[in-house]
Design goal:
Shape: extended
Structural class: alpha+beta
Strand content: 15-25%
Helix content: 25-40%
CATH architecture of the largest domain: Roll
Strand order of the largest sheet: 5-6-7-8
Number of domains: 3
């Protein structure tokens, strides 16, 4: 009589299966750290799904068909669409929703971080995303994800982030501590900024909102509503500034930089 070595308890049986899967994946794919979830206790059913998905992906990536690519447009079945120039604003939104749902059905998704209109997003989908390449045979259980702001380096989101980084760096006098370098040597009115900055001991209560703008070329001007308190010295009432800040920007060496900035309180 053959003795059943598997635990009878469902959860324990699944844990046992998971351990066998780990041994198999380590032996076949060299996945040494597979299943190591640090200090987090992962339910066995979640771990089981993860391990099986990992195995499917690894098997797929080792197959010849995993390297064949086609355009997103062909992959989506070559859907019929109109140029954004031939649609009014309402029609653009309707068609954008239709194409987005069609792509989701095909396991193609896209994200837009920039604050832009439906018309610009529709134009991106039909003129750029449709030309992008994707795997002819998708990875099992996976959705291919595209990001507008990566495919379109000239975008609103990156200029907005650069303005925010610039303000944080300027008022903290820390141009290298914002996660990426902000080149001061490219700022054409650096002297004016220094003349405004140095009379004060520090700045506090910085608040800002970068206003919406279309960014379509390698040069742009962004504006922001901004307010802050400037302290001359401790014990002295701070000076409150509020108004509009202006940033002239250029796209240099694959990145956006501020080449001129004006804050409330500076002389035009």
């Amino acid at each position: 009589m053959t003795k059943n070595l598997l635990p009878e308890d469902g959860e324990e049986s699944l844990r046992f299966e998971n351990e066998l899967l780990k041994i198999k994946l380590r032996a076949e794919f060299g996945a040494i750290n597979i299943g190591n979830f640090l200090k987090h206790e992962v339910p066995p059913e979640v771990e089981n799904e993860f391990l099986k998905t990992f195995e499917k992906v690894e098997l797929f990536l080792r197959s010849a068909e995993s390297h064949e690519e086609i355009s997103v447009y062909d992959f989506a079945g070559r859907p019929v669409y109109l140029s954004e120039k031939d649609l009014n604003d309402e029609q653009v939104s309707i068609e954008l929703n239709r194409l987005s749902e069609l792509l989701i059905e095909k396991k193609i998704a896209f994200t837009v971080l920039s604050k832009i209109s439906d018309r610009l997003i529709y134009k991106f989908v039909t003129e750029d995303l449709f030309k992008a390449l994707t795997l002819k045979v998708p990875i099992p259980g996976m959705t291919t994800h595209f990001i507008y702001d990566e495919l379109q380096p000239i975008n609103e989101y990156d200029t907005r982030r650069t303005c925010e980084d610039f303000m944080e760096a300027f008022f903290k006098n820390d141009f290298e501590g914002r996660g990426r370098f902000l080149p001061r040597e490219l700022i054409r009115n650096l002297g004016d900024l220094n003349n405004f900055f140095h009379p004060f001991e520090n700045f506090r209560n910085l608040k800002y909102e970068v206003l919406d703008a279309d960014v379509t070329s390698t040069e742009c001007v962004r504006t922001a509503k901004v307010s802050f308190d400037a302290f001359i010295s401790s014990g002295v009432e701070p000076i409150h500034f509020a108004g509009e800040a202006t940033f002239q920007m250029e796209y240099v060496d694959d990145d956006w930089v501020v080449i001129s900035a004006m804050f409330p309180g500076m002389q035009e």
